[in-house]
Amino acid sequence: MPILHIALVALIQGITEFLPISSSGHLILLPNLTGLPDQGQAIDVAVHVGTLGAVVVYFRQDVQRALKGLPKVAPRQVDDQHAWLALCLIIATIPVVLIGLVMQLSGIEQSLRSLEVVGWTTLIFGLVLWWADRTGTHDREFEGWSLKHAWYVGLWQAIALIPGTSRSGITITGARFLGYKRHDAARIAMLMSIPAIAASGIFLMIEVASQANAAAARDGALAAAMAFLAAIGALHFMMRLLRTVSFTPYVIYRVILGLALLAIAYG
Questions:
Q1: Which of 11, 15, 26, 20 is nearest to 167 (CA)?
Q2: What's the confidence (pLDDT) of residue 84?
Q3: pLDDT computed for residue 28 by the predictor
Q4: Is residue 230 helix, strand or coil?
Q5: Cα–Cα distance between 140 and 132 in angstroms, integer?
Q6: 117 Cβ partners below 8 Å, 6+ apart?
Q7: Angle between helix 248-266 and helix 115-135 axes, rounded to 10 deg
Q8: Are 126 and 67 in contact (CB under 8 A)?
Q9: Is the pTM of this model over 0.70?
Q10: What H or E segment, with its residue span, contains residue 176?
Q11: Which of 13, 24, 154, 265 sits CB 3.0–4.6 Å from 115 for a disulfide?
């Protein structure tokens, strides 16, 4: 696979995975603008690994807390903040795993991978994000995350199984509707992405395991490294920006992107 193609896919995935602007929308737009072929599932797995590594490194303190509390979840010894965080992340991940499995087994997922669907979801859920950010209060913080709220935002995250929705965008939307501050809503969404990306990466890995070879491994390693660096930069940019700026710039961008995708789809 040409290095330029790998770099484009890795950079697009790495940057857009955590910004609320839809990575799938950009990846679908890429071949339409450049004529490049689909990158294949092996590269998809690689860039997922890269972005997963980035969010783990960036939020390493929260990840360490969750891992420290994880052993207490099974015996029902949720008696500290570490175990509570781990339990909240588990609860928040259940909807996307269950619904994702149903969609995968039923074949619904493949039928939704069209330019029209991605265009409409990019546009519509961008506007929903704007509405949530405009009407949501700012009286809740990350430390007050509850199991009820984890389940609620987890249901929002499951909507991201529809291509073009944006996983980070829709989870931030759910958290903002609950009144979480912008920075805290993004923090919740990023931490929820860790088990979600890991689960989707495992599904993809199972599908491509039989196709592994030296060339694919080399391309995958390069794609993962590039996606990691791009995702770290995107995370740093967004989390700093959200301390002073709303989500409106992302919404405007999504509206423009959604309209562009629909113009290509129906043009």
A1: 20
A2: 92
A3: 76
A4: helix
A5: 14
A6: 162, 163, 164
A7: 160
A8: no
A9: yes
A10: helix 167-177
A11: 265
